[in-house]
Write a structure and sequence with these properties.
It is a single chain. The chain is mainly α. The protein has seven helices and three strands, in the order H-H-H-H-E-H-E-E-H-H. The protein folds into two domains: 54 residues, no CATH class; 87 residues, 3-Layer(aba) Sandwich (Cobalt-precorrin-4 Transmethylase, domain 1). Helices cover 35% and strands 7% of the residues. Strands 2-1-3 form a three-stranded parallel beta sheet, with helices on both faces. Helix 4 packs parallel to helix 5.
Length: 190
Amino acid sequence: MAGTLGEAPKCTEIVETLADVDGLEVPDPLKICYITQTTLSLDETKHIVARLRERFPAIQGPQAQDICYATQNRQLAVKVAAPDCDLLLVVGSRNSSNSKRLVEVSEKNGVPAHLVDDAAEVDPAWLEGVRTVAVTAGASAPENLVQDLIASLRRRGFLNARGVLVKEEDVRFSLPAELAQTPSVAGGTQ
């Protein structure tokens, strides 16, 4: 958010809540658009965008979903797993916005959650009385840390691990044209 605000400070407003939308004053309601931070909660963003559309029917938004596909898929997976677990552990950094959103999504679905950098940060008290633990990770968390956490949980008696596939991630990023061109071979051309 701060990056966009820094580029266009005179014509950018940061809106974080429904109350912010309700108090928003714009010079021309026919010339207004919105973008969202890529790591926001899908549920919160959905309500804010809906309120923006109510207040400003001419508002323009992005062509595609602004929320990062990996963030979106992980949030959906937490919602699917929540009814079947007693605790969610999220592997991710404390400064990772998308990791913090996973904890929030879990707690909003009635499941306590903790953000950990790695297996060593799991407090044994969190596991008391817990039968089923779900594990997920922020979008940039290394897979080896997730696997280490799963191995640690197995050593603590959580033996039946299973994966939950909510959505196949099939997003592919193409190289820009100038990088995708075949380089010339020294001494000749192609």
